Amino acid sequence: LTLEGGALRVSAGKVEAEIVAENPLEPQPPLVGAELLGSLPATEWAAALALVMPVASTDQSKSYSGILMQGDRCVATDSTALVEVRLSREVGGVLIPNRAAEVLAAHLKRGGETTLHTLGNDAEVALAAGSVRFYLSGQLAYYPDYERLIPCATACRATFDRDEFLGALGRAAAFSNSPNREVKIEFDDGVATFTTRRELSDTDTLRDEVACRSEGPWKPLGLNAQIAARAWAGAAENITIGQDHALGTVVARRDGWL
Q: How many whole angstroms from its chain centre is CA 113?
């Protein structure tokens, strides 16, 4: 902990945060030699973090640990699931450690504008939210090229009514009683069967049938019910999912297939 010019700077591992005393009559001191990379309404940034944080890897030895903000994308993955959120503006680039993201999310609830500055070099950026500044690494060269894992199109697609699809996922999540339990989905003649088992049991099983419009030779797929339900909660009327056999990937977009 260091105190400099009325600001408390806290360092822990790869993260530094600076807390400035909250006083509306005294604006936050300007950053010296900083260049604005971008800004985003706090509410939009908070919504993006809420969608990606459940799949963010906590293994700091991995190059994809944390949450990537780059251009107009917010991305997180744990190597089994990946969530990408498109933002309304480009905000530069920064890799946010998980713990910093949790603290940041709490401050974003206060509203206002969140800004990202580079501090004269590409190695460090400052992310300001309210009275708090986070000093984070701007080195993104080692983050995996995740876009290669997202197919542009798939031969297998299925379209569901939003409420029926989310309802089936919600029932599966509640029945399994585990945040990590997968729900298995199988397709047959316009019907998708959602199957899940209760945690620590091989006999208690829930089967839920949902009508859909499907095409292509589907293979059984597994989804984390809680993560999928949160990611697609903002969809309009329909949810379309696709399956790529070569990559072993299941892809879905909100508001239809892109």
A: 20
- What strand order describes the sheet that includes 213-215? 213-215, 156-161, 238-244, 249-253
Instruction: Write out the two tokens for 123.
Output: 């190695």
Instruction: State pTM to two decimals.
Output: 0.66
The amino acid that residue 235 corresponds to is A
Our CA dihedral for 234, 144, 87, 212, rounded to 10 degrees, sits at -30
- Which residue, among 242, 237, 246, has the nearest Cα to 257 in the 3D structure? 242
Greatest Cα-to-Cα distance within the chain, rounded to the nearest angstrom: 68
| Nearest alpha-carbon partner for 84 in 148, 23, 7 | 148
Residue 72 identity: D
Q: What is the residue whose two structure tokens read 């744990």?
A: 78
Cα–Cα distances in angstroms (integers) from residue 184 to residues 51, 66, 169, 181, 194, in the given order: 22, 28, 10, 10, 6
pLDDT digits (tens, 9 = 90+) for 191-224: 999 998 887 666 788 899 999 998 888 888 888 7
Helix (H, G, I), strand (E, B) or coil at 149: helix
